[in-house]
């Protein structure tokens, strides 16, 4: 995430019915590279290409480029469709926010952003991952469970917009061989899902595919 991305991020935030952060809060977070990582997901209509990336870090930029969803340089940036953030809290990479624009939900974008934040946790040398999620948000909870999060408690009236409780979730250590193997397999599955979706876009819109000359 860059400073000039903040207005688009705040639009998605309002669409997601969250209590919005100020632009200054985002500026402060993205400038704190010692403890924070904030990312955006972008999408455009270029066709997929390339082969699956190797399962090392970082993931988000490489995966999107291989699928043709973003260009190879910041000068070719496309529409922001989601964002997320993580900050280091002692040994925990605490996920502060993940949101996806309504037209792009249920397409794997949120899962892709989660993976980018896990990359950020490794960069920050975090040992665990943690987060809070609305008790009513079962879709998000299922995603987090898949990535090794488990409920450890509840915070009453955590969300100030409607006083909803938050479910507190933590992972076991993310530095173990078993977790990294699990993550590698989940990323392989996610890549295949995104590749199939991108292929379908091209099949449905032949004119968007590569020209042959």
TrEMBL record:
Pfam families: Acetyltransf_1 (PF00583)
GO MF, one annotated term: N-acetyltransferase activity
Domain (N-acetyltransferase): residue spans on this chain: 1-174
CDD domains documented for this protein: NAT_SF (cd04301)
Keyword Glycoprotein: no
Alphabetically ordered keywords of this record: Acyltransferase, Cytoplasm, Transferase
Domain of life: Bacteria
Regions annotated as coiled coil: none
Keyword presence, Plastid: no
Family annotation (InterPro entries): AcTrfase_RimI/Ard1, Acyl_CoA_acyltransferase, GNAT_dom, YpeA/RimI_acetyltransf
Protein family: Belongs to the acetyltransferase family. RimI subfamily.
PANTHER family named in the record: ACETYLTRANSFERASE, ACETYLTRANSFERASE YPEA
Protein name according to UniProt: Ribosomal-protein-alanine N-acetyltransferase RimI
UniProt organism field: Chloroflexus islandicus
